[in-house]
């Protein structure tokens, strides 16, 4: 009979009942292996595969196993790992749109996530047909299905699903074994998930390379490195006037879509976004000094700038009967930067500073004055072979010498009103 059951906790009675269907020593060995972190497995997928194979070898009639972890991610609702006998573990993700689908509304996992209850559906029970997912399982020869909540220490509820093709489904001893495995599996899953969450958050807020350094221990003020990089500094033209005449919610939406135009191009060509500053964006493209790939890197930066320009030009926002178009400017430079922790007390920022960054910021302002989308420094123009147009020398605040600036020969300047 399909039913909802309170979450079972691992205790002496549960383990004792499980021992009737599986040798006590073998079950305890698997539990100890999980509690110890499943160290013999190289990654999450292998850990799941190893755990399932050990359980099957010990007598649990498991055919399909799924782990569903809700994530702290701006775009992804959760990740799933699916194991089937004789197959590699499938890894997938689902986005937040799934929450509004009829499939999720009628899924056993919705009950697990929202109510923290255990759900069981025997395929020979007509009541199980209210879960469309179980129709798919029935077609694959499944006889019994159990979804168990997996609670993390922070109170969040995740889920594990267990299915069998064994005639008659899971026995009570099998169910006791399953319940006894949930708690240790939750502990090792939480450790893996926490580390992945830390990586995701760092990648989201400071960028991939910076995140790796922070997670690797560079968390003290003074932990800095010098790096050669191509520098990208851009902003949206007319942003102040735009903010003054449009609702704040509309401005935020425009900014997000505007940044999408750049971030996709930057990351697609090997760059890393370090900072959003209002409508401004700072990104770097590291150059390997040992490989000597400065020319190749700068060529990719220029290609990213062209892609971003085309995307921004195609971006529009309806205002009354017309569609408002947007323009942006980007300055490209190449040089050495100081890359690391800067701040006060225990509040730090992982960013980059140096004369090269300052020059890029000044060049971006010159791009606006000249009505240009893309301007580059003399150093960038020398490294990146292209049909450049010499735009002249300009005095730069903070620099003793005037700096020569170049633009794309094919670009027609547009003077902003």
UniProtKB/TrEMBL annotation:
> Polar residues: which segments have biased composition?
10-19
GO annotation terms (biological process): cAMP biosynthetic process; intracellular signal transduction
> Which GO molecular function terms does the record list?
adenylate cyclase activity
The segments labelled Disordered in the record are 1-22
Any one Pfam family here would be: Guanylate_cyc
Start and end residues of each Guanylate cyclase domain: 230-364
Q: Which InterPro entries match?
A: A/G_cyclase, Adenylyl/Guanylyl_Cyclase_3/4, Nucleotide_cyclase
Q: What is this protein called?
A: Adenylate/guanylate cyclase domain-containing protein
Originating species? Bradyrhizobium guangzhouense
- State the organism's lineage: Bacteria, Pseudomonadati, Pseudomonadota, Alphaproteobacteria, Hyphomicrobiales
